[in-house]
Amino acid sequence: MWNTQSYIIGGKMNIIKKFSLGLLITLFLTISANADKIRIGTEGAYPPWNSKDASGKLIGFEVELAWTLCRYMGKQCEIVEQDWDGMIPALIMRKFDAIMAGMSITAERQKTINFSQGYADEVASLAVMKGSSLEGMDTPAGINLTKPNAAAKKALKTLTAALAGKTVCVQTATIHQNFLDSGDVGKVNVRTYKTQDEVNLDLAAGRCDAALAAAVAFSDYAEKSGKPVVLTGPTFSGGAFGNGVGVGIRKDDTELLAAFNSAINKARKNGDISRIATKWFGFDASM
Description:
The protein is α/β, with parallel strands linked by helices and about 290 residues long. The protein contains nine helices and 13 strands.
């Protein structure tokens, strides 16, 4: 009887050993597979940079570029949808490994995360509805705020006078909100929204005198919606608007940063970034 129990217990022990070994192998294979997978966070609500089609599939310039960069790195990709205002915290908490979400490279953000080299330019612009008193402001075509020259300073004075007492709508936690809050164009009534789609809708509904975002975001909305949204004033770059758009990466992920930079170089040299940008923007926005 004892021998029988011993045999059964021994059998159970063998089963446990086999089960544990199988679990370890599965865990090892899972870790190995994940080591070759890069999870990339994007908003999915900032067309044409990133958005969703009618079926809910993530699409856009950055989604297509992400697949291309991962191919150059020889890695599998997973695109993760994330609300804009939680993008950097989610990266830090390792919900994903990188950000590709129309995120401009700014000194403030670089205090928290690293950026790859820029892969695209994102000039900003004010937008109004056709017929607005703000339409057709007499300013230079574009101003750079890194070291504003006399023309740029004059343009800022023109904008300060034009926007006095006006309500300007903008997506929250963006470089566009930072610019409006900076005082460079005086005291403006800033109304913030969670997504760019909400900004566009309220601009079209007349609840905003003007809105500020990437110029291509307004052009894309006007084309797809048929609404008479027009750009006004200069385009903005530099200063609070950063130095182009790059991949956001955690400070300690130096190997991943190097891999993205190498992939961006290859994609640029082979014309992939220019091709994808032209497809989604209608012009070459590559850096």
